[in-house]
Every structure is written in structure tokens, then in C-alpha cells.
From TrEMBL:
The lineage of its organism: Bacteria, Pseudomonadati, Bacteroidota, Cytophagia, Cytophagales. Belongs to the DprA/Smf family. It comes from Dyadobacter arcticus. It comes from the Bacteria. InterPro entries: DprA, DprA_WH, DrpA_SLOG, Hlx-hairpin-Hlx_DNA-bd_motif, RuvA_2-like, WH-like_DNA-bd_sf. SUPFAM superfamilies: MCP/YpsA-like, RuvA domain 2-like. This is DNA processing protein. Residues 13-32, 45-64 form the Helix-hairpin-helix DNA-binding motif class domain.
Length: 374
């Protein structure tokens, strides 16, 4: 008989493999049933009443056809040293917990500090130019003093250039994959993926044996954006995965930078477009970006809290506003992702609430998507 915690995890893996059941639906099912194992113990009448759960999904869940496969999957992960990070685990990346479309489980290999103080996503074209290669390598070199975790997609071009530059500078790096961990794509990057596991590693939301189908890459890009405090687009065409990553980053209220390129250059058309339409800040140097994000400023929460010698009353504010103001007061200043996680609010709702509190003269925004009381 398996311990209850293992049973719960196996049931989550079974839900992931059930057709028609995505990450949002899984959270819905678990929330209403009080646990993944309880989902499979529920009957049709209970499951069909859950909002957003249709007849097809209920029948697929009740078939329980993927429970045995999930148990085999769990054992394979144990045998091959694959680490599983479930969304309700302490090891699950805090930057992803507040995202409505975050994976419910991540598979990883290596030594990854998902909650590093600073994370930077570096993305770009697979058809990298000499200019793009030089910018990527110099950017990684200049990021080294800030001890950032560099996130990318292990693909050709900008991605692999960034990963290999990190290995040369001893900077931790994570490759987010669109396949299972046992299928390195492209296969020519297998050695690099192995070397990355010394200081960083590889991660995916896909089960073992999953092939890198075309539609899995946009889903992969949302994880890159979600894990990154700031995303830098080195080179990009007018269309491509990099621009999809930017869209996700903007939806998650993360900072985006783009490297300007030569007018008429196909590799820089996307970057110039992002800068022109104010969808990304212009990237001129790591130092300029660090200044804008507040990395070069020593902020000590205890110093900020001293401006409040007496207790502050939050009477007159809504319950949500009072909760957010209390959290910020306790910490001195807070990053929007941490606020979302602590408050349990979706990022879009929280961003609107914070904007209203700014208009009321209660909070001020700081570099790096942080907020403090006025």
C-alpha cells in the first residue's frame, strides 16, 4: 500500500495524462474534491456539478484508465533521479505559483534553485547572427556579478549560445524543454544539457517519453516567461517563439527588454518592432537594465518600515485592499509575484488593485515590479 502522499502525487500524474484535462481544470477538480485522490473517488453526480467540467471530462476521469500508467511514471522518475515538483510542494517555483495557467507539476534534473533572488530569461531566433552571438555572450558575462539564474529553451541559436556562455562563466542556467526529460531536443544539445545539471539543469512539464510536438513550444515559452523576472530578446524575426514568450511575460506583468538591431535585418525585425511599439524597453547594457530594475540599490526592508513609527489603520479600504496593504507593511516592500502568492489573488486583479492604491496615495511602485507603502 502506497503512503498517502505518494498516492496523491500519482493521482495528479494520472489527471495530467487524462485527455481533455489541463492544468486549470486539474486545480478546479482538486479544489472542489479536496485532493487528487478524492477526484477519483467521486461519482458522476458530484464531478458534473463542478464549474467548467463537462460530461466528456467526467467520463474520462471516472474511467481511471491512467492511474496505472501514472504509477509506472512515478516509479520511472524515482529510478532515473528525475525530481518532481508539484504545485502544492515547497519545491515548486514561487514565481509560478501565482500564475493561473502554471503547470501542476514540473519534472527536473540537476541542481536548480528555482527561487533564486534574480532570474533572467534570454530568448531569440534560431538563426543567430554574429552580432547576436556577441551580444548574448557579453550579456551573460555582464550578468555574472549579479549571480542571476539564466532561463532559456535549449534550442538552436540564441538559446544554446546563452546556455553555453553560462557554463563558461559558471552562471547557473536552466533549459525549459518542450519534450519529456528523456528526450533532449535537439539531440545535438544533449551534452550541453548534461553539463548544465552541475549548476542548474533542465525542466519540463511533460511526462517522460513526450516528443517535442509543435504545439508544445508555446506552452514551454510560458514557463520561460513565468520563471523569469525579466526577459531579454536578443534577436527575433517578425514572428516566432520569442514574441510569444514576450506576450506571456507581459500578461504576467514581468519586465521585457529587446536588443535593437540594424534596420532591415531579418534577425532584428522583431526586436525593433517591440521597441517601436513600446512592448519592450530598449536593451543597451546589463548595467542600465540593473539600474532600472533596482539591482544596484541596497534596499533593506527594516529601514523602510521605520517610516511607520505608529500603527497604520486600513479602515475604509476593501478587504482585498486591506490584505495587500497589510502584507506590504509587514515586509516593507514586496514583489508583485510574492504579493499574488501571499494574497491568493490572480495577477491581473492584483495589478488593478495596486494601481488603484497608487491613485489613492497609499503605495508606490519600485523598480523590479516591487511595491512599498508611501
Amino acid at each position: 500500500m502506497l503512503p498517502s502522499d505518494e498516492t496523491e502525487k500519482i493521482c495528479i500524474l494520472a489527471l495530467i495524462q487524462t485527455p481533455g484535462v489541463g492544468s486549470v481544470t486539474i486545480r478546479q477538480l482538486i479544489s472542489y474534491c479536496g485532493g487528487a485522490s478524492n477526484v477519483f473517488l467521486s461519482d458522476y453526480k458530484k464531478l458534473i456539478k463542478i464549474p467548467g467540467i463537462g460530461d466528456k471530462v467526467v467520463k474520462a476521469v471516472l474511467s481511471k484508465s491512467f492511474l496505472q500508467l501514472a504509477e509506472i511514471e512515478y516509479q520511472k522518475c524515482t529510478d532515473t533521479s528525475v525530481q518532481l515538483h508539484f504545485y502544492n510542494d515547497a519545491t515548486f517555483p514561487s514565481r509560478l505559483k501565482a500564475l493561473y495557467d502554471a503547470p501542476v507539476v514540473l519534472y527536473s534534473k540537476g541542481n536548480i534553485d528555482f527561487n533564486a533572488a534574480r532570474t533572467v530569461g534570454i530568448v531569440g531566433t534560431r538563426q543567430i547572427s554574429d552580432y547576436g552571438k556577441a551580444v548574448t555572450e557579453n550579456t551573460i558575462k555582464d550578468l555574472e556579478p549579479y549571480k542571476t539564474l539564466v532561463v532559456s529553451g535549449l534550442a538552436y541559436g540564441v538559446d544554446i549560445t546563452a546556455h553555453r556562455a553560462c557554463l563558461k562563466t559558471n552562471l547557473p542556467t536552466v533549459g525549459v524543454m518542450a519534450s519529456g526529460l528523456d528526450i533532449i531536443y535537439p539531440s545535438s544539445h544533449k551534452r550541453t544539457a548534461q553539463e548544465m545539471q552541475e549548476m542548474g539543469g533542465i525542466v519540463t512539464e511533460n511526462t517522460l517519453g513526450t516528443k517535442p510536438d509543435f504545439m508544445r513550444f508555446p506552452a514551454r515559452n510560458r514557463i520561460i516567461a513565468g520563471l523569469s523576472d525579466v526577459t531579454i530578446v536578443i534577436e527575433s524575426g517578425k514572428k516566432g517563439g520569442s514574441l510569444i514568450t514576450v506576450e506571456f511575460a507581459q500578461n504576467y506583468h514581468r519586465d521585457v527588454y529587446a536588443v535593437p538591431g540594424m534596420i532591415g535585418s531579418g534577425q532584428s525585425e522583431g526586436c525593433n518592432y517591440l521597441i517601436r511599439d513600446h512592448k519592450a524597453s530598449i536593451f543597451t547594457s546589463v548595467e542600465d537594465m540593473a539600474n532600472a530594475l533596482g539591482w544596484n540599490q541596497e534596499k533593506k526592508p527594516e529601514n523602510i518600515t521605520k517610516v511607520f513609527p505608529e500603527p497604520i489603520s486600513f479602515d475604509g479600504f476593501t478587504q482585498d485592499e486591506g490584505q495587500v496593504l497589510s502584507l506590504i507593511k509587514q515586509k516593507g516592500c514586496m514583489q508583485i509575484d510574492e504579493l499574488a502568492w501571499q494574497s491568493g489573488m490572480h495577477l491581473n486583479k492584483l495589478a488593478t488593485l495596486l494601481l488603484n492604491l497608487e491613485f489613492q496615495g497609499m503605495v508606490r511602485s519600485l523598480p523590479g515590479k516591487k511595491y512599498a507603502l508611501i
